[in-house]
Structure of Serine/threonine-protein phosphatase with EF-hands:
Amino acid sequence: MGCGTSVTGSRAKKSERAIKAAILIQRWYRCYMARLEMRRQYALSIFQSIEYAEEQAQLQLSSFFTFMLDHFTHLNVTDTGSDVQLLEYERMIEVPDSYRGPRLSFPLTVADTNSLLHAFKDQQHLHARYVLQLLHETKKLLKQMPNIIHLSTSYSKEITICGDLHGKLDDLLLIFYKNGLPSEENPYLFNGDFVDRGENSTEILIILFAFLLVYPNHLHLNRGNHEDHIVNLRYGFTKEVMKKYRSHGKKILNLLQDVYSWLPLATVIDSKVLIVHGGISDTTDLDFLNLFKRNKMKSVLRPPRQDIAVKGMTRPSSSSSHRRQYTSDLLDVGKHMCLLHDGVNSGPLLEARYLESSVCMPSMPSELTAKEWKQVVDILWSDPKNQNGCTPNKVRGGGCYFGPDVTARLLKRYNLKMLIRSHECKQEGYEISHDGQVITIFSASNYYEDGSNRGAYLKLNPDLIPRFVQYQVSKCTRKRTLHQRVSVVEWAALKSLREKLYSRRSELIAAFRQYDPNYTGRISATEWASAMESVLHLDLPWRTLRSRLVQLAPDGSVEYLSCFNDLEIEPAIKEVQPALVETLYRYRTDLEIIFNIIDKDHSGLISIEEFRQTWKLFNSHLKIDIDDESIDKLARSIDFNKDGNIDFNEFLEAFHVVNKFENK
């Protein structure tokens, strides 16, 4: 008996130790997963903050880019000609016998859509003649549609709703693989932002427009904020079209302006579910939106000549004086670039009364009213927030933040049940907010970086109960462990943030030293965080991020100069004066837009003289003391083949901030 009792007690102790061990392992695992989730969330926050800051810069500089388009008309031909002229132009384009891609005939059939899908899977391009014909037919069809589409479900089918695709063809193909191709039995709604950022925006547009022509009652498209020709200049679609269709790219881009302007603005399902790309505001009026002539809105970045900044587009605040100065600098650069490029004195066109961005902006056609413009801006650019009320969206620079009370009032006013929108990358591909009344759906997986987010689409049945389907396109992602996936995303986010730090190095050091009058090289974590936010305006958790960006002293203070210690520019131009490198890097995205506008044939080449004169202007207006010899040295170092021209794509790559120790 005693022996049996001893054995039983031993087993009990072993069991107790095993339970304690299991509890410890479970606690460790939960902490481990919580840390991973925190890292993943702040990485996504970094990516989003930088993205929205770029959008804000684009909106605040819209007067400058609009001026450039107005005076370099090869990208601003709003009249594409009559249908007869367009058809004649299309007929003049010959399709050579050597062309192995799809050959389309109109009206399109299901066989044509299947041919396109197979061709794009094999990385073929559709010939320019067929692209123009497709756009022409799409425009004719869209013109017959109302501003707000009304759909209904039945007991035999669901409607599939997809969010942003942003040129990610693999995501679209995966959606079709998992959910089936569009058809009468399988209707789809794509909620805007088909283009920009990804490499296959052209193919996505072609596929969606082709299915629209085959199934006009069963495939539907809403306009997004990236269906905008000026936005496309910054985010890659313009460059993609010109690269793929160099000879006819301008005609395609010009025709696309019209196609964009005829895209419907919203969709209502079963009179209960409203679907718009961005969101709503406290002044959104669906009745008004349904009546005005939507094709007047060629670009959100070209509002009427009225002082509508208070209600619509956010202007730089007093804390953003550098942006106001930057706008002025770019306007002056634009003036001199006109003189350099055209060889005529067009200076009077740039008088301050016309270009002063803090007062008014260049006009769209006079028929567009301020109310029409604001109504469209709000539904294309707005985002939901958790707090009640409606406030300007200062993070993006356009639209508003709308709270649960704004949603509830609009739904009650129009007897609606739910608002579905897109416009924001979500880690899981979707998000439910405002007590279930607002759904965000985002369909571009790996949007910022491989593994950064899932994509999703939703299926809406007659009961109006959404069913979400998630996915992630990436062979590499599946092969990595969770820790590896998070580490890759985190590294990419921090790399992007470090590049931002480098581009504002001088301003950051000045802000740090306001808290360090004795030049000790150290400030408190709170002071460091305040200085970072005052310069970068990214609204990030800087105290959480400080251990990843700077070295900490033993007393917990921040050695603020250490955030630049491991950053350098690619070796090709390291000998160039640091102040010039920093300036070029800060403005490289906007420079690309400027040169895209000036470079009429989109060859990517600019003359060394043009480069030299441009940067002399930047010197004088940005008050940076850089001598002519440094600029010449920079120009010569970039002109690798010594032909007197600079490959601007290589120029952008040259100004690439890297981590000195990343290879180690």
Observations:
- The two ends are 66 Å apart (CA to CA).
